[in-house]
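Exercise 3.2. Students should predict the tertiary structure of the chain below and write it as structure tokens, then compare their answer with the key that follows.

Predict this chain's 3D structure.
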Amino acid sequence: MGRDDQLMETLIDKLSTWVVIVDQQGQLLFTNQTIREMTGYTEAEIKTMEDWYKKAYPDPESREKVKKHFQYDIENNIKDRTYKITTAAGDYKYFNFRYSNLDDGKILFEIIDISHRIKQKQELKELKERLELALEGGNIGIWDWNPANDTVHFNDNWAQMLGYELSDLDNNLNTWLDLVHPDDKDQALKDVKDHLEGKTNKYQNEHRVKIKSGDWKWIRDIGKVTERDESGNAVRVVGVHIDIDQEKRAAEEIKHLSNHDELTGLYNRRFFNEELKRLNNSRKYPISIIVGDMNRLKEINDNYGHSMGDRYIKRAAEAIQDSVRTEDIVARIGGDEFAIILPDTNYSRAEDVVDRILKRLEEDNKIEELPIPLTIALGSETTDGNNQNHSVKDIRKCYNKADEKMYEQKFSGRY
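Answer key:
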């Protein structure tokens, strides 16, 4: 196998997508190593489609149903479907199968693990159901306000959802206003004012309020003017407080998970690519990028298990994160690949960061004995937006150049 072929196979093996080529007889002509990470099965265990069916669907009845679905998809040119499969560990995952027809009846399958996405949808569905039950159960507070004399009547639920008894509260607007988070208060008051002046059809605002325990709780506040005097001034506004704290926290968690790598807590490839697009129009030049690839991770996984491999990955992430500034962006963009974006950083300072990471790894290897030393091949490049001062012109080319330099290190024989 030539060097180019080896490089191509290495790149394919690093994909998070499981790639499979099958012939007309159902023989697997090619599969990348992602099969192990996604399913726990090895290439030796899955040599034919029949092997796959038996492993992924141990129940004979389910297996036959899936085989019929699969055949139906092929015959009817349905090239995208999600299947629930059984892994080698005995748990379940959801895979999205996409296929393309090749020459001589061969089929190329691209298979993506969407289990996390399915789980998030289920969690959101359950959260919605819980909120509906909460509202049905009375987890909603009612208020009735007369702006003319600043008298407010709250119901028991309004007080109780904040940890108070109704007798603890004064009947005026300051009772609510004093509980609103300082960062949210101005917008809440503006929304109230706009509605009183007839600029909006209703008042609606989401803000945090301090409950009796001292914690902050997210509230959706909705109200409407129901009466005005002869001059058009509001004399009665009725509304509700809805507890949306769980909804907000779940949304924040999902947003965090969508941008972060679950194993290391670093940013993920999706967020990294978005940052590249954003920074392409940035004024924070020069911008440097460092790309790193762990060495011998496959050997570690094969000989010591994936739990040991995960330990190496987390150690590498810690070493990189500890070597950069808080404003720098560190991402895990592949199984064993990392990338760093360094705003306001020239090439010389980027190389200093590379040196710090390598020195940190050397120190870690001395402190903690590992079966194989933890090393990372690193490449760096800089862009200042105008192709000057040891710089490429744009940030995408900067990333590609750093990646090339990393691979030069990778295949230099040093590791």
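Discussion points: The chain has three domains: 3-113, 134-249, 261-410. The first strand starts at residue 18 and ends at 22.
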